[in-house]
Amino acid sequence: MYDLPYLRGYPAATCQQVQQLLAADLLGSTLAKRYPESSHEIQTDKALYELTMQLKRQFLKSSEPLSKAVFDPKIHVINNALGSHSQVSRVQGGKLKSKNEIRVASQLKKLPLPLLRMVVVHELAHLREKDHNKAFYQLCQYMEPHYHQLEFDLRLYLTWQDQPQKR
What we know:
Shape: elongated
Number of strands: 3
Strand content: 15-25%
Order of helices and strands: HHHEEEHHH
Structural class: alpha+beta
Helix content: 40-55%
């Protein structure tokens, strides 16, 4: 029996299927078929910022400006965080300036591009919707029509990566 921390909350039947794929050593090959190109060019903070801004310009033109999108080695996927969004307020002179920042776990550089893009879409959606509510997920699907499948595949990918013999 394998621990499935990324799949908590999913139906028992789904978890059982994942258990079977892990036991048969087929989860990695299943994901490789779905995402044959596992490497991509988004390896630097600059490349991540460009991807993020491209998506923001395409889907969220009227949202608040974004000052930073970076890979952060301090974010640990194990603590159930793939990325974070924050609004940083700073006093400059006599004025209070507010900036939006997106941080993505550095470990996600190794993900297939569609999965990394899904994380960026998720964090961008927080510029408009702070909570994980219906409007938030509708916005995610607007930006990425296969959002829910990609989120599930990301959970499968992280589950597979956590298997010590699979690394």
